[in-house]
Amino acid sequence: MNLQAYVILCITTLIWGGNSVAGKLAVGHVSPMMLTGMRWVIACSILLAFAAPQVRRDWPVIRKNGALLLGYGLVGFTGFNAFLYSALQFTSAINCVIEQAGIPMVIFVVNFLLFRTKVSPAQIAGFTLTLFGVALTASHGDLTTLLTLDLNKGDALMMAAVLVYAAYTVALRFKPEIHWKSLIAVSAFGALLSSLPLVSWEIATDRMIWPDMRGWVIVAYAGLLPSLVSQILYVRGVELIGPNRAGLFINTIPIFGMVLSILLIGETLQTFHLIAMALVLGGIAVAERGRPKDPA
Fold this sequence. Notes:
The chain is mainly alpha-helical. It has helices at 3-25, 32-50, 52-57, 59-64, 66-87, 93-99, 103-115, 121-138, 144-147, 153-171, 180-204, 213-248, 253-265, 271-289. It contains 14 helices and no strands.
């Protein structure tokens, strides 16, 4: 048992659960792409102040791996949050946080197909339970809608977010040997650059909403905690126990997100949410207990 990794990853998912709630609170107060872009302006400004010396020291490695590092920002930072904040325009925060539990299943499949990562029968059972929980949430308790692909637009966008972040997590295995400050700084810069076309599109199509007072509070939260603190902690967690096991802790996002959604937004907890939660938590317990002895 790696207690340090478990604590780090639980704090990470608490922040991410709050990010989904913040995105829901942002509806009508700041537009999705503006929120995505502004959070990275804040994050990059802070990183410029304390990460610049380390970036200079790591510059030879950064220059050699620039495309990969900027790509982390494009996919894991901008891509995921653009889909998440867009999804929250059409579906509930509770749905979004439960659906994020599908990320470990995608990580598992990709790692197995591409790298033949060792997987135990218990992990397969756990991932399957999680998948059913996600499917139940995405279908709003009616699994027959999945057969006709009749999904709420927001839930479909959240499924895209799941795929994007799983790809980012798997790709972290290829990160070069550089200091975490340099990794986060260059990735955040990639996120800032890749968010500019999205903001431009929003302005050009008259979808842009400039932040009001609540919007600025949400932008500040997103720029500090989900953009900086959680990313740093998640990278460290992956280093400690690997992407498959670290990805499992994403399944705790529904717990934090559901509680925050009820307390801060007043969203309604429905029966299918409770069933899905039980499946998700059961899945993480089974998969973690039955993991292979030699983690990937």
